[in-house]
Amino acid sequence: MQNSTICALASGVGGAVALVRLSGPQALPLLRKFLRKDYTFEPRKQVFCTLYDGENVLDKALITYFQAPHSFTGEDVVEFALHASPYIKGRVLELLCQLGAVPAQRGEFSERAFLNGKMDLLEAQGLCDLIAAGNKASHDLAMNSLDGKMSARLETLKQKLAALLAQIEVRLDDVDEEMPPLSADFIEKELTDVLAQIKLLTNTFSVGRLIKEGLKVAIVGVPNSGKSSLLNALVGFDRAIVADACGTTRDTVEETLEINGQKIILTDTAGIRDHALDPAEQEGMRRSRLAMEKADVILFVQDTSREASDEEKKLVTEVQKQNKRTCIVRNKIDKSVRKTDLTLTPYPWIEVSCKSGEGLPDLRNFLTETVENPHTADGLMISNLRHYEALLRAQTELEEALLRLSANAGGEIYAEHIRAALHYLRDLIGEVTPDDVLGIIFSQFCMGK
Ligand SMILES: Nc1nc2c(ncn2[C@@H]2O[C@H](COP(=O)(O)OP(=O)(O)O)[C@@H](O)[C@H]2O)c(=O)[nH]1
Ligand SMILES: [Mg+2]
Question: For the whole model, what pTM was predicted?
């Protein structure tokens, strides 16, 4: 239990009501300092109170008291639902601090909840992701973490490994060899089983990351193929300048949108050609190539009404070197002339007209299909780099243990690797995570959470 009582604004900007949260042993006594009447606070019941600032009424607010340990943090908690004037919010926090509360650090409420065993690290991070989630897919992902599905899965794996390790260790201590030995087949089966389940999870990371961070899509092509028009058509408004002249787009233009509940980050780039008009276009082309390198998906836009130039063919080769999911967007099909034929490339192509909107639904589906994943029958996914790395380490240790086992190494040798794997799983849930690492994790949370 922490000694200090912390306070922070838990609600965001705007709105009519603001929530100030107070957590710690002094929560209720601090609240009383604002009151002139002896209200009765039953846990989890709201009470409409008049709050005083000295002799003056500061606000009339709904107050909720949560009694330890039945609160978010596991401590005594008081929540003030105030009228959301900047003055009232600011003054309540100011008075609380004058009376002895301490402003909460980022994520400190969650950190206390974690330290008091109200949630494990995975659940806490799920909560942080939930608040940040801007679309349905990342919301669902965070929810799976928050409601403990991921923790439960890891707990099962942990228990299985711990049981196996105990059986091996007890035999290591059994110098008189009174116990029947464990068969190598049994150990191998147990290890392979856990390993397979961990691999299922690590395999979801690439997609989990895409869902959480968004799919990065670079729109590339030679000048005038309609890249900026495509960006505008997909985002639904005139974001980038469209013009007949070659080399209109110099800087990369980025826009985030949601397609089928998925976050997509589109980047329109400068057209790539052999000779730039000036240093600005040169720099633009460098940025185009950078965007291509960073992208998860490349949309290669071509003008179907024109013959493919050598420049364009060269660019196709360049794109191929990126080795990324790519789609040839055959644009301007509203024009009667069809000349280019780039079906020689290994990529799927979709015919569109940015002018009429024809073909765009297919293109949208192409983009979101990238994120659909065969590994997630039960919806569990890894989207956090720290979790991914911990699982990968556990995976490596188990592979090592299996190798040693098949090489007939002594029990103490593979037990060491199983112990290490177990440690990484515990670190993932926060059971053995050092304080400084915890501090860093919670400091990435938002204020008031
Ligand atoms: N007819 C027709 N013209 C288009 C289409 N898409 C773009 N354009 C025209 O092609 C020219 C170049 O477009 P822009 O988007 O600036 O190309 P960028 O250089 O690749 O960004 C402009 O005059 C656009 O109006 C289309 O689907 N149909
Ligand atoms: Mg452009």
Answer: 0.70
